[in-house]
Amino acid sequence: MMLLSPTWTAILYLAAAVCFILALKGLSSPKTARRGNLIGAAGALVAVITVFLSVRLENIPWIIAAIAVGSAIAAPVARRVQMTQMPQLVALFNGVGGGAAALVALLELGHATPDAGDTTGLYDLTSVLNPWVGLAIAFTLLVGAVSFAGSMVTFAKLQELMTTRPVVFPGLPVIMAAVLVAAIAASVVVIFTGAIWIAVVLIVLGVATGVLLVLPVGGADVPIVISLLNAFTGLAVAASGLVLGNVLLVVAGTLVGASGTILTRAMASAMGRSVAGILFGAFRGGSTAGSTVASDRPVRSSSAEDVAVLLGYAQRVIIVPGYGLAVAQGQHTIAELQAALEARGIEVIFAIHPVAGRMPGHMNVLLAEANIPYEALKEMSEVNREFKTADVALVVGANDVVNPAAKTTPGSPIYGMPILEVDAARQVVFLKRSMRPGFAGIENELLFEPQTTLLFGDAKDSLGKVLSAVKAL
Questions:
Q1: 190 CB contacts (<8 Å, ≥6 apart)?
Q2: Sequential DSSP letters for 72-91
Q3: How far apart are CA 212 and CA 193, in angstroms?
Q4: Confidence (pTM)
Q5: Transmembrane ranges (predicted)?
Q6: Do 430 and 466 touch, CB atoms closer than 8 A?
Q7: What is the dihedral of CA 411, 414, 420, 425, to 10 degrees?
Q8: Which of 284, 317, 334 is at the close of a domain?
């Protein structure tokens, strides 16, 4: 029984679509991200309730049971996940979305009737009179499967269940091309015949394409590929909306696809690379490799007390947070250090690189957890000109985003990537766990410069010692 008229259904879908648009707008800034997330969740809730009240559903107990099981799994996982594991969670959620879209398309194809005169169903998918619907089905099957498989591989890489280095082998480009050609051929057959077994083959080919697409990607490029696959999932969901005749799915999927594409391009630009170079750079040695070999070159190291003296008698300090800070969960300690320095009349700001951490906004969210004012967070475009006025640049757990090789070493995996120009500061202090390189797998020449001092150890522990020493000055 349908409780909502078509008019009210359209109005509620429009309200949900507006919520999704406002959510994206809110997520564009750390100040409004929490509100944007809540607005998006409210829009999704409105959409689900509208479906229940406007569509004649069968097997409602099974649907409710599936929602309950999914919620029981997802809610605890989302609440317990560490900040450093957020990209993995995004990859999992994204992959599940792509896989769900592909399964929905397969089920709709299986439920289709070959009777072109039957107007009780949504579409006659097996009729050549509806090739555009067949195209939407094939697109959803292929792209949804690519997104699912590719996201699972990115999850495995970030979770270190497999190597983070690019995985390439002889003949890989030829195999990729052959699989893609086979997928296109299978798509054509699905469009004009609606054959279920060919659709299953298309899903398998999509899974193979997703795996082969992501295997050659390594190191710092993986989060960018997650964003790209998120765009793929959005497009698959939009296409499934065409299959189901659901306008809201088309709108929501298009929003995700468009925003994911914009984010991918922004992240690639922040790395100074093209999307094609990120996906296929390993074939010519251009992808970040993620080496873990530690350097044995001599550096100038120091104690927490010496670092405290540098900070305590400075006038201006710029702190550069990185993934190491997130791993150590040292955001609250660094907030205390900021407060202690400011109590001494020292100006303290934070320099945020667009791809510091493992995803855009990673450092903003991390520091917001510690109630560090948004005004103290400066983006790369505005803070770079201020390094030359800084007495001390304190780099906590960052490496590649401050590596001068991006400007000085053609052929380097990060050459051309915009960086935070900490080398312009009068003194540079690195808090590092070891001399292992960053995700790009290359040495940072700044570590060996005369103005650079290193303090080795866990970031949270080192910050705690520095904080105690500053308070004792």
A1: 109, 134, 137, 138, 141, 198, 199, 202
A2: HHHHHHHHH--GGGHHHHHH
A3: 28
A4: 0.78
A5: 6-24, 36-54, 60-78, 90-112, 132-155, 167-189, 195-215, 222-241
A6: no
A7: -40
A8: 284
Six token digits for residue 392: 């001390």
Same structural domain for residues 61 and 14?
A: yes
* 241 and 338, same domain (yes or no): no
The tokens describing 385, both together, are 């000109």
Range of the domain at 140: 83-284
- Look at residues 234, 262, 227 and name the one whose alpha carbon lies nearest to residue 250: 234
> Residue 352: which residues within 8 A CB-CB, separation 6 or more?
321, 363, 364, 377, 378, 379, 380, 383
In angstroms, the CA 440 to CA 449 distance is: 20
Radius of gyration of the chain (CA): 25
pLDDT mean by block of 10 residues, the chain; 473 residues: 80 93 85 88 93 84 90 86 78 91 89 49 45 87 95 88 82 92 94 88 95 83 86 93 88 92 83 74 56 66 91 93 85 93 94 79 81 87 91 90 84 79 92 76 84 91 93 89
Residues recognised as catalytic: 400
Query: Closest Cα to residue 203, out of 139, 147, 145?
Result: 145
Q: Cα–Cα distances in Å, from 159 out to 152, 196, 432?
A: 10, 35, 21
Residues 378 and 364: their CA atoms lie apart, in Å, by 10
Domain end point (choices 55, 80, 105)? 80
CA dihedral 338, 365, 76, 93 (to 10 degrees): -150
Element of type H or E holding 403: none
Q: Where are the beta strands (DSSP E) in 43-150?
A: none
DSSP secondary structure code for residue 342 in this structure? H
